[in-house]
Design brief:
The protein is of the alpha/beta class. The chain has twelve helices and 17 strands. It has helices spanning 3-9, 13-22, 24-35, 44-60, 108-111, 126-146, 170-179, 226-238, 278-293, 315-332, 346-351, 380-395; strands at 64-68, 81-87, 93-99, 115-117, 120-122, 153-159, 182-185, 188-189, 195-199, 201-210, 247-256, 266-275, 301-310, 338-341, 357-358, 362-366, 374-376. The strands form four sheets. It has a six-stranded mixed sheet with strand order 1-2-6-3-7-15, with helices on both faces. The protein has a five-stranded mixed sheet with strand order 4-5-17-16-8. Strand 4 (115-117) and strand 5 form a beta hairpin. Helix 10 crosses helix 12 (380-395). The longest helix is centred in the middle third of the chain and has 21 residues, at 126-146.
Length: 397
């Protein structure tokens, strides 16, 4: 097929929106079914039940479906990954990804069931991220319904542990991303409709301070006060804020000593660093380690451990796809903007593979992680069309 004939066969964004509007009652019914399944990150059985539902739905559309069990991490079990693959006739592999886990405890779906009011849907995970996962399935259905398969492969990946940093599924998702020409994250759009074009990276740090215990009344001179070193270190680390405008450092946990009459031999600082660029994130971590090596209290030693480092989602990773999304939005007659946020998503890890990625491609929603979490049902047809039209534009390059 020539480029001209492919363009002629590609469905328009407006046609996709009309189809999505007709399918809205089905979307609402299926959203209610998916939200009714408790699938907290700590409930592998619940996540797998949601995965069963999605796997069956993907299979009904003709996807080849694979289920990958995830290994325990530090003794903690998680659900499995659902991967659907639909082969096409084109040249580009496109990855759509979402997560099935929520932050809510077992029993929440029964205690606070799915409901609709004022054009919005409410329920645990309705926005983050069951609405996004379902949007990926429905966008694929729109394309299949129009006969558009001008991609090498359309891959939909649904993960079980995004809400806790993807410790079990991260390697599976990044391996899929490394094979893709483009990746679209199905976290829902911001409340004002913005897509997400940048996210801060975050690194957790643990700072262990070791001194020497001594009786505070009899021989305090023999002690090496770890708490005093921790106090100085805390202030010096917090002073990194403001040196580089995109860096935020927070020490959230401070502990030292056990008894009032003992010079404390140990102290602990736990915190995090966030930044919009990997270079600034590394600068802040290096600065903490340099300060830790230059102790104030004689005889005290300090060790810094980088517990987890999630790289930032930088605009260099999202720019090209965002321009395509704007073009698709223009077809639909809507204005589209991009937002930067301090929170992280799996898009951060995907961007680190070098694959172009864009985030926030689910329907519009808000109040994530709260009892008031909502999804704008009126936005669904437009956002499904935007997502499907973006796949068309990527595939048609």
């Amino acid at each position: 097929m020539t480029a001209a004939s492919r363009a002629a066969a590609a469905p328009s964004a407006v046609a996709l929106r009309d189809l999505a509007q007709s399918a809205l009652p089905v979307f609402r019914r299926e959203l209610a079914e998916l939200v009714s399944i408790d699938s907290g990150s700590d409930s592998p059985e619940g996540v797998d039940a949601a995965g069963d539902w999605c796997a069956a739905r993907l299979a009904s559309l003709g996807f080849d479906v694979e289920r990958i069990a995830t290994p325990p991490v530090d003794g903690r079990r998680f659900g499995g990954v659902v991967i659907g693959r639909l082969r096409g006739s084109g040249a580009r592999r496109i990855l759509l990804f979402a997560h099935l886990d929520t932050v809510f405890a077992e029993g929440t779906a029964a205690a606070r069931p799915y409901r609709e009011e004022g054009g919005r849907a409410y329920g645990p995970g309705v926005c983050d991220d069951k609405g996004g996962a379902l949007a990926g399935i429905h966008a694929a259905e729109l394309l299949i319904g129009t006969g558009f398969t001008d991609f090498a492969e359309l891959v939909i990946a649904l993960t079980p542990d995004e809400e806790v940093g993807s410790p079990a599924s991260g390697s599976v998702l990044t391996a899929l991303a490394a094979e893709a020409d483009a990746a679209l994250c199905l976290e829902c759009a911001r409340e004002n409709g913005d897509l997400v074009v940048a996210r801060k990276g975050v690194a957790d740090v643990r700072i262990d301070i070791r001194g020497r215990a001594a009786h505070s009344g009899v021989e305090p001179h023999r002690g090496r006060n770890a708490a005093v070193e921790a106090a100085h270190l805390l202030l010096d680390v917090q002073a990194l804020n403001g040196i580089r405008p995109d860096v935020a450092v927070n020490i959230g946990v401070v502990s030292a000593g056990e008894r009032t009459n003992v010079i404390p031999a140990a102290a602990l600082l736990s915190g995090e660093v966030r930044s919009t660029t990997l270079a600034d994130l590394e600068w802040a971590l290096d600065s903490i380690e340099e300060r830790a090596a230059a102790t104030v209290v004689d005889g005290v030693t300090v060790g810094v451990e980088r517990l987890a480092v999630c790289p930032p989602l930088e605009t260099a990773s999202t720019h090209a796809l965002f321009r395509k999304a704007i073009a698709a939005a223009d077809e639909l007659g809507i204005e589209l903007s991009g937002a930067a946020t301090g929170g992280v998503s799996d898009a951060n890890f995907v961007a680190a593979t070098g694959t172009p990625v864009l985030d926030g491609l689910g329907p519009i929603g808000g109040d994530d992680h709260a009892d008031s979490e909502w999804l704008d049902l009126e936005s669904v047809p437009e956002r499904l069309a935007l997502l499907a039209a973006l796949v068309v534009r990527i595939a048609s390059e």
